[in-house]
From TrEMBL:
Superkingdom per UniProt: Bacteria
Organism of this sequence: Nocardioides phosphati
InterPro entries: Proteasome_assmbl_chaperone_2, PSMG2_sf, Rv2714-like
Protein's recorded name: PAC2 family protein
Length: 281
């Protein structure tokens, strides 16, 4: 069981989760949780005991110096936090941690039991994968859900992936088996710039959260960081003609495809985000 601090009664909380590792290309998904923790002033209320789930030779503990000047060990783990975002009529449970090395089903069961104790009514998982997508175009986001009604609300390209999965896929499957409504968003990160961070991918995931939750999320430095990231990749591509040619080929493929990002519906969604953010400001 996960030991948690005493928590006030939460209002119809939604769970938003991301895990470092295989599901987190460019650290795009876990960076979204970090961003939400900051802009929503989230409070950490508990953490899973790492002893049963992590191989400490693969995810080594770290030596840290506390505010009192004493050295202590920081263990790799998965934390649970809560927040009450302004402009949203429900609370949020944030889960942020590492993909476990073992006992995945028990790991998911303990996290979902903690979410159930807190009253979590909807689970949203965030993830990122490497893909053949150009950095100069909107980074595509695919989605999946455990219930038909959620599929209709997603309004994103449905994932058709078959093959290996990570803890995000297992976590969503566990939600389905427990009849917990769950949504999963995956953003594509250009594989030729896989090194983290990837703020453009994080920003794409934040926009999907805004659409699903129906509220504006403070973006902070994400838009400017995204533009700076794209400019930096442009400069790298200009230095290597082979990379530049490859990027142009990817652009041509994207530009000739029937892209949901270029549809009237996508433009309307972007305008709705703008209006919500203007009203909240």
């Amino acid at each position: 069981m996960i030991e948690m601090d005493d928590v006030r009664d939460l209002v119809d909380p939604v769970v938003i989760a991301a895990f470092e590792g295989w599901n987190d290309a460019g650290d795009a998904a876990s960076s979204v949780i970090d961003h939400l923790m900051e802009v929503w002033n989230a409070e950490v209320i508990g953490a899973i005991d790492p002893e049963d789930f992590y191989d400490f030779q693969m995810n080594r503990p770290t030596v840290e110096v506390g505010p009192d000047g004493h050295r202590r060990i920081g263990w790799p783990s998965t934390q649970i936090a809560i927040a009450s975002p302004p402009g949203l009529d429900r609370d949020v449970i944030l889960i942020r941690g590492l993909e476990p090395n073992m006992r995945w089903r028990q790991f998911c069961a303990e996290l979902l039991a903690a979410c159930d104790d807190l009253g979590g009514s909807l689970v949203i998982t965030l993830a990122a994968l490497l893909a053949d997508t150009p950095h100069t175009r909107p980074l595509p986001v695919t989605g999946s859900a455990t219930e038909p009604e959620l599929v209709d609300r997603l309004r994103v390209e449905q994932s058709s992936h078959e093959g290996p999965t990570g803890i995000v896929g297992v976590f969503q499957d566990a939600c389905g088996k427990l009849d917990i409504p769950a949504v999963s968003y995956w953003v594509a990160v250009p594989h030729y710039v896989a090194q983290p961070p990837c703020p453009k991918a994080s920003l794409a995931l934040v926009h999907e959260l805004e659409d699903l939750l129906g509220c504006a999320i403070p973006l902070g430095d994400l838009p400017e960081d995204s533009r700076a990231w794209e400019r930096g990749v442009d400069e790298l591509a200009e230095e290597e003609e082979e990379i530049a040619e490859y990027v142009r080929a990817l652009e041509e493929t994207r530009d000739t495809a029937d892209l949901p990002e270029a549809s009237g519906e996508a433009i309307a969604r972007e305008f709705e985000r703008y209006l919500k953010r203007r009203d909240s400001e």
